[in-house]
Amino acid sequence: MPARGDHDARRRDVSAAVWRVLADRGFGGLTLRAVAAEMGASTGLLTHYFPNKKALVSYALDVADERTSGRAVRTTHEPGLAALRAALLDVLPLTPEAAVMNRVWVGSWDGSLADPELREREMRRYRGWRARLRVHVAAAVERGELPATSGADDVDDVTAAAAAFAHGLVVHALFDPDRYPPERQVRMLDAWLAALAP
Amino acid sequence: MPARGDHDARRRDVSAAVWRVLADRGFGGLTLRAVAAEMGASTGLLTHYFPNKKALVSYALDVADERTSGRAVRTTHEPGLAALRAALLDVLPLTPEAAVMNRVWVGSWDGSLADPELREREMRRYRGWRARLRVHVAAAVERGELPATSGADDVDDVTAAAAAFAHGLVVHALFDPDRYPPERQVRMLDAWLAALAP
């Protein structure tokens, strides 16, 4: 059994190789063989870690989660609309790194929709994200930056609309970066936020 | 060589089998073996049609295109905002059939992002869709239903935002149908359109 340090180093190597495969080829290209080739290791070694395809996919989602939660995010001291804007900007593919991150997540959807367990995992992830965004929407209403509406449902709907808009923009920008340069993505987000204000 | 009628019947069988595999398992589950099993045919027979995985994926995209363009769509005699609304409703997963259609398209993105040719194909498809939506946005401005703006750029941005919102809503509704029942999707779309109006 390898020492702990070896184990951690190996895990980092595997994670980095998985990420490179996902960034280049997506989940459709994620195979033990591809990861082994990235590491210069044998497929046999990886079989030890990943007894089946689903184990490899679950691990890849863990890697994506870690990268996503470990990424640099915008900090703002303003609550409400400014915080909502910052949180949505954090999601958009405004940098090459953010584009890779998004490409991986968008690529994960096919497999997640096909597997009840992975689908539930993704559902919970997005519920968690919307719950974090909702805090900003509620604060914006509180501060009078967004119209006071008929109740909690409307705050939920505005939050869900913000999340949908951001994710759809991610998809279109990934397919058509020439038509969706970063400045246009930001302009579109700002126009939408402006349309919400009273 | 089979007679023309046989050929067409066989093509319909293959298309139906490909569609069932996509609906159940997504592009990640699309293999010659899976399609053959759906047809009760031999994998060898299908190798004749699809020399490699990419040929099968391209064919699957053709099938999805055919199904999408052949589906029943809402007709409206009102141009402008009403036509935009109808076109966006046509995209949302408001029925089981529309949910399957969307599940297939969302599932196609992983493979399309990984292949330059497929990526370009998808890019053009979405450009075409946005061009069709743009006609409605421009008509809505003309009719005074949307504010007259600073020019063509704004019409493009409003169109792109509507397309992004609809596609993001598709993704969230696919993962979380309990939280996104059809009536909520429609309510969110109507709120979106209402926020655009002067």
Automatic annotation (TrEMBL), chains A, B:
Domain of life assignment: Bacteria
Coiled-coil spans in chain: none
DNA-binding region, residue range(s): 31-50
Keywords from the UniProt entry: DNA-binding, Repressor, Transcription, Transcription regulation
Segments forming domain HTH tetR-type: 8-68
This protein's name: TetR family transcriptional regulator
Keyword Repressor appears in the UniProt entry: yes
InterPro entries cross-referenced by the UniProt entry: BetI_C (IPR039538), DNA-bd_HTH_TetR-type_CS (IPR023772), Homeodomain-like_sf (IPR009057), HTH-type_TetR-like_transc_reg (IPR050109), HTH_TetR (IPR001647), Tet_transcr_reg_TetR-rel_C_sf (IPR036271)
Organism: Actinomadura violacea
Keyword rRNA-binding: no
